[in-house]
Write a structure and sequence with these properties.
64% helix, BTAD, DNA-binding, mainly alpha, ADP binding, 5-stranded parallel beta sheet, single chain, Arc Repressor Mutant, subunit A, Rossmann fold, transcription, TPR-like_helical_dom_sf, 3-stranded antiparallel beta sheet
Amino acid sequence: MQFRILGPIEVHDDSGAAVPSLPPKASRILAVLALDCGKVVPVDRLIDLVWGEEPPPQARKSLQVHISTLRRAGVPVEHRTAGYRLDADPDHVDAHVFRSLTARAGEIADPAERRVVLGEALALWRGAPVTGIERLAGPLEAQRLAAVEEAADADLALGRHAEVVDLLADLVEEHPLAERLRVRLMRALAGAGRRTEAMRVFHDTRRLLVDELGVEPGPQLQQLYRAVLDGAEPEPVRRNYLPRDVGDFTGRAEELARLTEGEPHGVWWIEGAAGVGKSAFAVHAAHRLAARYPDGQLFVDLHALPPVPGAALDVLLRALDVPTVRIPTQLDERAALWRAQLTGRRVLIVLDGVAGVSQVRQLLPGAPGCLTLVTSRNRPVDRQVQRLALDVLTPQEAVALLTGILGDDRVAEDPEAALEVARLCGHLPLAVRITGARLAGRPHWPVSRLVSRLRDERGRLDELVADDLAVRSSLELTLRALDGPARRAYRAFGFLDHPELPAGLAPALLGLPEDAAEDVLDRLVDARLLDVTGRHRYRMHDLVRIHARELAEAEDDVTDRFAAFHRVLVECQAKVDGCVERLMPVVPRMQDFLGELHDHPVPRAERDAWFAVEEPLLIKVVERAAELGFAAQACDLAEALVFAWFGLRNRYDGWERTHRAALDAVVAVGDRRREAVLRCSLGQLYFKRDEFAEAGRWFADAGALFVRLGDRRGEAVALNGAGMVAREQARYGPALASLHRARTLLAELGDAEGAAHSLYGIGSVQRELGRDAQALQTLRAAEEVYRSVGSARGEALAVRGIGLVHRARDEHLEAEDHFRRAHDIVLALEDPLMGCYTAQSLAKVWLRTGRFAEAALLLVSALENCRELGDRFGLALLRRTLGELHLAAGELDLAEVLLGAALTTWDDLELPAWRARTLRDLGAVHAGRGDDDSAARCWSEAALLFAELGSREAGEPISRTRSDCSVSP
C-alpha cells in the first residue's frame, strides 16, 4: 500500500487505486503511525497527538475503534505491548520518500542535478500536511520550506531567476515573516531585471517585521537591499575551514533532518559516547548546511589545542583574517573582538571535542544569524543549547557503513557474518570503521575471519585497532578527565561484567551511601561512559564494559574487586529470599536457607515486574559468582530463584543456566550435598519442560548422591521426583514404589508437607489405575495436611485431584464443586500456570454437562496462557479438550485438527497413556463420519496400549464417544 500524508491523507492499494476515505480521527492516527512507520508508537503519544493535551476519558477505547477501522480498510497496523506499529516500508510513505530525496540532494554538488532531485521531492506535496496535528505539521512544513530554499538556491546558481519568482511567489504570501524566502525572491527579481519589484519586497518585509515583531530586517536582507540600490548583487566571501566530509557517512537520517530543517541557529550540542561518530556527524551536517552560511564555515579541534585560555579564540580570529597584531592579549577583549567580527554575518562554527560549556562560553557568537555545532562526550548543563544525542548505529546502518568502507562484494557474499561483526562491535561507528579498515587492508580476508577473532571478549579490544584509530585509546581519553572515585566506580561496574545495573544496587557495588553512589555514577553518565535507561537504571556499552573489566583486573586489588562483587551478591540474595514461596508439590524444597516459605510474601504484580526486568542481571550474578569461586552462594541464589521466579513462570533458560553454572562450581570444590541439591532441581526443571526421560536421569543421580551422603530427606525428595516422572510415563508400579518409599522417609523425619507431596502423587497414580476409593482416601489425607501446614498451592492440587476422581465416576456435581474450589484458590494465588490446569478441569465438567459455550471461553483463555508460558503438556491437554468439545458439538473437522495436534505432542513427549486417550477420541471422530475402518484402527491401538499400561481405561468400553476423565496435574 502507498500512504500519502503530504497533503490530504490518502491510502492507495498496490494497484494504485485509492482506498475509500477514512474518518478524520482514523486518518490522523494513520498519519502519526506513517511518520514512524516500522516503529512502535506508544498509545499515550497517539492519544496526545490526535486528541490533544486534555483527551476525553474514553480516548483509549476510541483509539481501539479507529485502529479497527484502519485494519478493515486493509491498513497493516500491528498491536505491540507498548503501542501500535504500521507494518509498511518507509519507501511507501511520501514523507519518508521526501526526506530521502532531500538528503540525497544535499550530497549532490552539481546544482542542475541537485535541482532535479529537489523537484522530485517537492512534487510529492499536495497541500497542508497532517491537518489537525500542528505538532507534526509544523516540522513537516519547515522541511518543505528548507527544500524550497535549496531548490531556489540551485535555480539562482543556474541563472533561472524567473523560475525562482514563480516558485516563491505563493510561498512568500503563505509565510510572510520568512526572511530567507524573501531574500531569495529579491535576488530572483533583481536577477530578472525587476529591480522595482525587488525593492518592494524589501519594503513590504520591513513593514511586516516592524509591525508584527518590532524588529528591523536581518543583515542579509539589508545588505541585499543596498546591493539592489547600487545595481549589483554582492558576492559573499566564503571561508571554508571544514575538514573533508566523510565519503562513507552512513545513517543518522533523523538527526540530520532535525538539525538541517528550517533555519537552524544558536548552539547545537552534539553529545554521545566515545566512538559514536560525533565529529563525523558534525562535519557532515556542516557541509550540508554550508550554503546557508555564506560568510564562512569554521572548524576548531579543541583536542589538538594547548590547554591555554584563548587558544581557540586565536584560531577563530585568524580564520576571519584578523591580523595577529590586532588580537588583544586580554581574554575578555579577545572574546569581544570575536563577537564583533560576527556581527551582521552568517557564519557556521564547529567546535569539536568540547569538555563542557565553560570551555566554549567565550567562543559562542552573539550574532543571531550564526550557527555553532559543538561535539562533546559530556552532557551540557546550559539549557539554552539545543541537545542532539547520538547513539550507536542500527544493525542495518552498521552493516551499510562496513559495506561502504570495503567497497567490494565481501559483505554481500556473507551478510550473516557482516551482521555478527557489527554486533560484536556493539554497532559503534568507530569500532565498525576500524574493522572495515582492517578488512580493506586485507582483501584476502573474508568478513567471517574477523568474527572468530572478535568473539573472544578478552582479546576484542586488541582487534579494534587500525593505524591511529583504537577503541581503547578513545575510552582512555575520556577517563583521564574523571576523578578517582569515578574511575574506581567505572572499574567496579566493569568487573560485575553485566551491561545493566539498577540504581538500588549501586551503593552495594561501590560500598558507598546511596546519595554518594548516585553522584559518582552520574559523573560516569555525564562522561557518556554510562547511560541511564528505564526507571533509573545504568547501562554500559559492551565495548566499554570490556575495557572497564580489563582495568579492574589490571589495577584493582583482588580483595577489593571481589568484595565489591560479593556485596552485590548478598543484596541480590536478600531481595530474592524475600520473594520465595511454595511451588507445586513436585518441586523439592531442599535448602534450609530459604527459611519460611509463604504463598504471598510480596504482591505478585510487584514481584513479577521486578523479576522480569532483573532476570538477566540475576542470572549473570549467579554465573559470575560461580566463575569467581563463590560456589555455595551461587548454588543458594540459583535455588532461591527457582522458588521466587523460575519455577513460577516457567523461565527454563535462566533456570538451566544458573544451575549448570552453580553445579560446575560446587563440583569443583567438592560440595557434594549442594551438588545433589542442584541435580535434584535440574530434574525438576526437565520434569516441568516435559522431558521426562532426562528428568528421571537427574533425579536418579541426585538420589544416589543423597544415599551416599546419608541424607534421608534428600533421598526422599529425589524419590518423589522419580515417582512423578514414572507416573507421567504410565509406569505405575515403579511410581508407587518410589512414592511410598518417599512418604515413609518423610513421615519418619517429621516432614508433613513433604509427606503430603508423596500422598498427592500416590493418590494420582491410584486414580490412573481406577482404584477410586483408595485415591479419594489418599488425596483427602493430602488435602488435610496441606491445609494444616498452610500450603494453599498444595491444597488446590489435592482438591483438584479429588475432583478428577469424581469426574471419572460421572459424579459431575461433586467434581464441579471441587474444581471450583481449586480454581478459586489458584486465582487468589495469581498463578497463571496452575490456573490453566484448574480451568481445564472445570471446563471439562461443563463439557460433560452440555455447557459448551462456557467451557469454550475458559479453554481458549487457558490455551493462550499455556502458549505464553511455553507449557507443551498443558497446550496438548487443552487442545485435546477443545477437540473433545468440537467432537461433542458434531464439528468433526475442527475436532480432528485439534486432536491431531495433541497426538503429535504426546508422541514427542513419549507419553503412551495420553496417546491412547487421544486415539480413542480420534476413533470417535472417524466413527462420526462413518469411517468404521479408521475408527477401528484407532480404537484397537488404544485398547492395546491401555491393556499394556494397566490403566483404568483397560476395563472401559473402548468405543465410547465421550472422552476419558484422567488428567495430569
